[in-house]
Amino acid sequence: MSAVKSSSGAEDIIVIENLNKWYGNFHVLRDINLRVKKGERIVICGPSGSGKSTTIRCINRLEEFQEGSLVVDGVEMINDVKNIETIRKDVGMVFQHFNLFPHLTILENLTLGPIWVQKKPKAEAEATAMQYLERVKIPDQADKYPGQLSGGQQQRVAIARSLCMNPNIMLFDEPTSALDPEMIKEVLDVMVELAQEGMTMLCVTHEMGFAKKVADRVIFMDAGQIVEENEPNEFFNNPQNERTKLFLSQILNH
Amino acid sequence: MLKQKTLEQTKAAARRNKGGRSAAFYNNPEIRALGYQLLLVLGLGYFFYSVISNVLANMEATGIKTGFGFLTASAGYDVLMSLIPFEATDTYGRIFIVGFLNTILVSVIGIFFATVLGFIFGVAHFSHNWLIRKVAVLYVEIFRNIPLLLQVFFWYFAVLATLPSARQSLSLGEAIFLNVRGLYVPKMVGSDLFWVAEVALAVAIAGIFVLRRWAKRRQALTGQIFPVFYTSIAMVIGLPVAALLLTGLPFTVEYPELRGFNYFGGITIIPELMALAIALSVYTGSFIAEAVRAGVQSIPQGQTEAARSLGLSEKRIMSLIIVPQAMRVIVPLLNSEYQSLVKNSTLAAAIGYPDLFNVFVGTALNQTGQAIETIFMTIVVYFIVNMVISFLMNRLNNAVALVSR
Amino acid sequence: MREFQPVPARPAPVKTVGPVAWARANLFSSIPNSMMTLFVMALFVYFIPPIVDWAFLSANWTGTTEDACVRDGACWVFVKAWSYQFFYGTYPEEEVWRINLMLGLLVLVIAASFTLPKHIRLKASVAAWLLLPLVGIAVLDGRLLGLNQVTTDLWGGFTLNVFMAAASIIVAFPFSFLWALGRRSEMPFIRSVSIIFIEFFRGVPVLSLFFMGSVMLPLFFAEGTNVDKLIRVWIVLIFFMSGYMAEVFRGGFQAVPSGQYEAADSIGLSYWQKILLIILPQVIKVSMPNILATFVMLFKNTTFLLIIGIPEVVQTLQTALSNSYWLGGHALEGYLFVFLVFWSSCFSMSLLARRIERQMNTDKRG
């Protein structure tokens, strides 16, 4: 296993040490070690079932783990409701299937968190929400319902919804896998812009173009463990591991 | 030069190929449709004509009176239980109202408890506790698969009928008594200043609406969240109690007392009403539990995950994400369950609870022989009651289904 | 280049698997949870031993009369002594083979509709189903076949519930299909008549329908016609059932994709060919779980026949309970027995419905 790159622990915003997780008796995550610095952009790739989604879902405790430790933005993850809510407020997440709330308008989707979690006045929450909707370039859809939007628009709303909570870390769980090809770009553009502003990002994705363009590090996972991690150039041009090479040849050659 | 057919020639050829016939009129779909409907009109017309003439002839032959004149005639029989004063000399019209009120009473009690049971066991299906989940499944699968009539009889004959006699009544704190003749509970009798407490209760209920609007406005302006739910409960209980204390407890409690062979005073709930209400609640409750389960299960896991990732607490996820979405599935199902409960309350006839069906289609029909009038009047009432339920539930449905997609 | 050597999978830590961990996660995950678990367990401990004792350990199993019930527990002798009446009513004992024959035929037809070779299955099973009620009447009544007549007032017991429910749903099937078609029709008069019919029979309490059948229906026939009470009730059940089934079919019609209609039109099928050959089989298939659910409702509702004095199983039980040789208060035993009979039939049908539904869902995905 390659060495953890980070040297100074002070600026590590996420520290994962010896993380192990089982579903029943199935060992899904095996000895995951990962340190993420503030402002770092990390792309995680790997075959399906390799544990990549499970890893990032552990970071905001959508999944529990049985062994190891996890520190997010200086808060250690323990089995405590308040503690978990604190971490979740600080970590935004974007899902493969958007998961917008179908019974709320786009604007209500965006203001739900600020109003009920951050206890902001409605006007303020709506102003912030409109700013973010403008950033993802769909302010005119504010009063529509999610079902009336295209997939790409829905995913951009989902990103804006997370950003409204003003998170320090953004997790992306295959944000473009459920989209038609022509909509992938509009979502990736938003993500690239976000990366350029210095957001700490962990993306599970197979969009290798995106990885080359913005990632500081690419991590390859298989069988529940980190096989290889490197900066994008090295990773794509000079993979150190047989398994990585095979995977890259499979996804790049079609 | 090629011989070119003109359009006219082509058309003429086509007509020849069809054998020179123009399209048969009976193959025209519109004429066919008209024909079918005409046939149906004639058939139905003949059916109703023969039925009505048969009915008239039969009624004449047996000497049955027609019309609604019987409603003002004295009924000459008493009913087991009545919410309004009633004597045997009162009219069939009044008996109709007595029965109607009794039907409404048992339906309201049934709907209330069925909803409570249904929601408890429906939500229990998603408990973290394995044992509770299994108990919920057991409840639904047992009571939904046993005929309601059997359940009514079970409670009436096998449970309530085996209770001890009045002298050996089961009692709770010497205030509530249960015996084979019914359930006896104390009654609160108010004196002069009792109206103050009643007003306080009304004020509290009105206050909830004001409070909700105020809390919503304040949250919109300042972002602060006010605990509306707990405050409302405190108001509804607190205000009337405070009013009672301030006016010096202006009421007496009438306890049931054993006189001779039975208890008198207080409120009496007859075993017929108990058995019917219990059976209706338990039976319909099992269907409502299924509806609740279906409603909650219809929400994808991703909704909860997205709400969690925003940092919402489990309580808020329930009230802001799960309940509003589940209700859109649950309310239409509740609508039909409530309607079947009202229709099923006619099983009162099996144990003699004097509901509308029992006193009217049962007894009044027997005495007057006017089957058509009594059954018609009764059916109309059930239709109207169900339309009212449907109307209210649709209003509720519109309230929960804000989304126009 | 390095070879990827996966870290070998380790078994999960003992504290997360195994019975202790399971109990911790599923029974004692929090303080309120543990309290509920203990409460439910306490209820079980309190209630189950006396119930087991009453129903089994100190129950009375042998004997033929009430005097045999000397022990404290349940008097199952009562159920045993009346079991013939519970199942067959007052049908003469030497003729009971006819009821058993019909039960056998019913099972046979059900089995045939699932197992016959595919090319004749539909036609053969539809014919068998439609013939079944007629054969049933002929066999049970007996006159047509030259057997002794058994008048309908002797029919009764649980088999009567089964036969009434089965005979009603079979005849209601084609009717409800027509009503559903009528409700979807573009012809305004036909549509309105269908809607009124369906909503009437769905909106009215089933008991009032039975009263109509027993009190009002005789007035509808010409003077002097005397239609058997059971047949009148049968007619009512058919109407009642077809109202509900029409709505089930309407749902089924909506579930068939419009492409199926277009494809049938495009190969030039006539309206009835299209409906009977293409659409109906698909409608029946997607509606199967709901048809079963409606049948369960009808089956449970056959007990309501007691109110108009038809000796179905609950009526038979009431008669048995008031029999002067059995006045020892055996209501609990009797009801539990009939509970069990109904519950096992209804529960197995709902299980079947659920299995078909699951099967259909996986078919859709595959």
UniProtKB/TrEMBL annotation, chain A:
Residues 14-248 form the ABC transporter domain. SMART domains: AAA. It is a peripheral membrane protein. The keyword Coiled coil does not apply. Keywords: ATP-binding, Nucleotide-binding, Transport. Pfam families: ABC_tran (PF00005). The keyword Transport applies. One of its GO terms (molecular function) is ATP binding. It is found in: Cell inner membrane. PANTHER family: AMINO ACID IMPORT ATP-BINDING PROTEIN, PHOSPHONATES IMPORT ATP-BINDING PROTEIN PHNC. Belongs to the ABC transporter superfamily. This is Amino acid ABC transporter ATP-binding protein. It comes from Marinobacterium alkalitolerans.
From TrEMBL, chain B:
Residues 100-393 form the ABC transmembrane type-1 domain. Keywords: Amino-acid transport, Cell membrane, Membrane, Transmembrane, Transmembrane helix, Transport. This is Amino acid ABC transporter permease. It is a multi-pass membrane protein. It comes from the Bacteria. It is found in: Cell inner membrane; Cell membrane. It holds the Pfam family BPD_transp_1. Its main location: membrane. The chain crosses the membrane at residues 34-56, 68-86, 92-124, 136-158, 193-215, 227-251, 263-283, 375-396. PROSITE patterns: ABC_TM1 (PS50928). InterPro entries: AA_ABC_transptr_permease_3TM, ArtM/GltK/GlnP/TcyL/YhdX-like, MetI-like, MetI-like_sf. Belongs to the binding-protein-dependent transport system permease family. HisMQ subfamily. SUPFAM superfamilies: MetI-like (SSF161098).
Automatic annotation (TrEMBL), chain C:
Residues 158-353 form the ABC transmembrane type-1 domain. It comes from the Bacteria. The chain crosses the membrane at residues 38-57, 96-114, 126-146, 158-181, 193-219, 231-249, 334-353. It is found in: Cell inner membrane; Cell membrane. It is a multi-pass membrane protein. Its main location: membrane. The keyword Nucleotide-binding does not apply. Keywords: Amino-acid transport, Cell membrane, Membrane, Transmembrane, Transmembrane helix, Transport. SUPFAM superfamilies: MetI-like. InterPro entries: AA_ABC_transptr_permease_3TM, ArtM/GltK/GlnP/TcyL/YhdX-like, MetI-like, MetI-like_sf. PANTHER family: INNER MEMBRANE AMINO-ACID ABC TRANSPORTER PERMEASE PROTEIN YHDY, MEMBRANE COMPONENT OF AMINO ACID ABC TRANSPORTER. Belongs to the binding-protein-dependent transport system permease family. HisMQ subfamily. This is Amino acid ABC transporter permease. It comes from Marinobacterium alkalitolerans. The lineage of its organism: Bacteria, Pseudomonadati, Pseudomonadota, Gammaproteobacteria, Oceanospirillales.
